[in-house]
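A further point concerns the way the authors explain their paired sequence and structure data. Nothing conveys this as quickly as seeing an actual entry. An entry of this sort, consisting of the sequence and the corresponding backbone structure tokens, reads as follows:
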Amino acid sequence: MPLVNTREMFAKAYDGGYAIGAFNVNNMEIVQGIVAAAKEYNAPMILQVSAGARKYASPVYLRHLVEAAVEESGLPIALHLDHGADFDICKSCIDGGFSSVMIDGSHHAFEQNIEVTRKVVDYAHERGVTVEGELGRLAGVEDDVQVSDDKAQYTDPAQVQEFVQKTGVDSLAIAIGTSHGAFKFKGEPKLRFDILEEIEGLLPGFPIVLHGASSVVPAYVDTINANGGTIAGAQGVPETLLRKAASMAVCKINIDSDLRLAFTAAIRAHMAANPADFDPRQYLSPARALVQELVAHKLTQVLGCNGKA
């Protein structure tokens, strides 16, 4: 089975009231952990590559890792560009074999966002690649995406119909209160489901995307801190809120920080318990296993896409 785009998986997710997990990947062990869980629970998935991942591992290495995952698992997998900053980056990834891209024009004025997104859509659709656009801006930090709280803004439902119609995007990332990174809320976690409901009514049947949707699992944070880490005050999106979103118009939920936390927690715990170990396989194996455990939980208890491949 070759890489797939997101069109069919989103249509099934919308009708089925579940969401597809979009997991950020940076190395072989993370890919293997995610795919092992998806294979165990027969789940479709999106493996996505950020600007930081491209710099760290290069798109060529990552594409071949994901293609190996397709070959080994036989699952429907989309290789997605996360937060493409401009047309040239999107074009490079499309030409390099990605099956889906995001053009993030949210930092532009509305009309300029439409213009750059439409340009990417035209190029991508001619090559069978799906495109995610974005309206609204999430706060937080994720690789090259850095938005302060005062620059963040909720998606304006009054703009969504025009944006989708004029750009031709296949899915739309919106801002309803999630944020990038491990420090998402300073007080009680809340999402603007009223905005999501309004957008769902304006765009019936259209797939919506949530970025910045890691739950920042407290057990992982505690393990890191107990073994030399200093992550204080980390707080994510409660899984009950994510499950509610997945039952609505949200068809893609992005998960990155939880993967990083699981990976790091397992390595710190192993190295603390086994200070003589120096073979990377000794500490990367438990890290891979904890990623698999995390993803299995997300597939079955949060996203609801288990058994949907």
